[in-house]
Amino acid sequence: MAQLQKLQTSNLPDAVLDRRQAVPRLLDNHADYLMVTGLAGAAQEISALTDSSPSVFAMGGAMGAALMTGLGLALAQPKRRVLVVTGDGDLLMSVGGLATIALQNPKNMTVICVDNGHYGETGNQDSHTGLGIRLDTIAAGSGFAVVHTINTEEDLEEGRRLLREGTGLSFILLRVKEGPPNRNKRNLVPHMERENFRKALLG
Amino acid sequence: MTDANDWPDQLYDLLKSAKITQFAYVPDAGHKVLINRSLADPDVHSIPLTTEEEGVALAAGADLGGERAVLLMQSSGAGNCINLLSLIVGCRFPLLTLISMRGDFGEGNPWQFPMGQGTEPVLKAMGVNVLRCDQPEDVIPTVTAALTMVFQSGQAVAVLLGQRLIGAKKFA
Hints:
The complex is a heterodimer. By secondary structure, chain A is α/β, with parallel strands linked by helices. Chain A has helices at 19-26, 41-50, 66-76, 88-92, 96-104, 135-141, 153-165, 190-202, and strands spanning 33-37, 56-58, 81-87, 109-115, 118-119, 125-126, 146-150, 170-175. In chain A, strands 2-1-3-4-8-7 form a six-stranded parallel sheet, sandwiched between helices. Helix content of chain B is 41%, strand content 20%. A six-stranded parallel sheet of chain B has the order 2-1-3-4-6-5, sandwiched between helices. The chains are: A alpha/beta, B alpha/beta.
């Protein structure tokens, strides 16, 4: 059987955080933001955290769309803080968007990648990050001046500070163990997702 | 009397008058004037993309925030957009894309034909309305119609700018 080996260049410690606690702790002030989430785990846990707030646009598909949807929103709403919360699989599909975003340099935008190193929705296959690819290094090389990697509880505190202080365009890699996200019963009617978000923001 | 051959500058003015503020593109010679004018315009965002589907998602985000976007690309890029058109059509986001054609009238590079000839059918298969311009005098009326369809009726519309209009690229 063909086996993929973990890259020798990988030098991150094993993930220890549980996303069901780590995501709510990182985002304890979630009501301050407009949020776009990638599909699957990120959409589920942000919907659960915010009780499906209309300030969250949560994808139910369209893998790879979260990052750039966040940019369009951040450029349109420069007075609001915009968070993109997405998983490693979704972000790997759209890494060029990091470079596109860095060239625009929206000061009101933060990208949070909840990286569990696996495709949790499709049978838990290893993702590229699970085999040693580093999205934090990719973000830095793509022009994000502020990049913070969260491996431990202590690292979480620095992430919370970055979010509270809003220090311009930033990237946070939240490394979590395999395992399920928090969930609620969420809307999966696509056009209602758009209409609810626009009504809450634009009236 | 305006000169129809001046359509690229008239087109930029038309898009501006329709309150488009996010100009996203993968560079193409057919869109040179629009790209350069957006780069020189302090009132708009000029957004170079690494691949065309980024612009599809960007247009959705612009609409969520109450702004309007246009996506400029070559027909080669239409295929890159297909899955993310699910976001546009499913959520009923307005989308305006202007597509300069390759693999079309007088094309001299055979590599361009599969995607060039596939552009209109694959866009239609994903629920995008397709309009086409082949003469300079077509451009402003066609894009004016597209703007109404997109921002009044909430449709996704691609306007194809044919090689008869923009000229076939010369290959020795």
